[in-house]
Write a structure and sequence with these properties.
Blueprint lengths: L12 E6 L2 E12 L2 E6 L5 E3 H4 L9 E4 L3
Antiparallel strand pairs: 1-2, 1-5, 2-3, 3-4
Amino acid sequence: MAIALDNLRVGRRYLLVNQGEVRKLEIMSRLSGDNFKVKDLETLEYYTIEELLRWGKGKDYELDELGS
């Protein structure tokens, strides 16, 4: 079961699966409401959650915390 966006915590790492894309993310800061600045742990690029979910949540949507 996916974690709700309002349960994300700054400094924690998560696995996001959506629309066939798999990303490992670290939450850098909370911008507003359910929007966060995130760092992709594989490409080291920065995004916002809104950018990653811009096209909606697919049937494969999953958001879970990564183990340490």
